[in-house]
């Protein structure tokens, strides 16, 4: 009869490694990112700045033409505030400011959620396909901006080190 090793005689597994803190994991990830060169702006940030400026201009143009999706009159104060925010984001992103990219990411994320939800109430083919176009291009830009934000943040952390 063959002897089976008992459970007690088996090697005990290695003790688990201690988990790194969030800041340690962030530092490891930042170390893998190449900081931006002076004056460098990632392509995704440039595209986002242009999209932001284009949306602000289109918003003002539609407001001046007194058009909106419901066919009624637009509220000028709301349109102006929205356009000013988009222009501020565009200028901030053009200058490579982390906060501006983060703010535009928030706006883009909200837009993507509403686009996805609008598919539910689509009443014609255009209303059904347009959200998919917005989700495709907006989602791609959102994803590309995440790495660009990491590079901008890596540049900031590199400057602050002694």
From TrEMBL:
Keyword Transmembrane listed? The answer is yes
Region described as Disordered: 1-26
Residue spans crossing the bilayer: 44-65, 77-94, 101-122, 128-146
Keywords assigned by UniProt, alphabetized: Membrane, Transmembrane, Transmembrane helix
Q: What is this protein called?
A: Unannotated protein
What broad taxonomic lineage does this protein's source fall under? unclassified sequences, metagenomes, ecological metagenomes
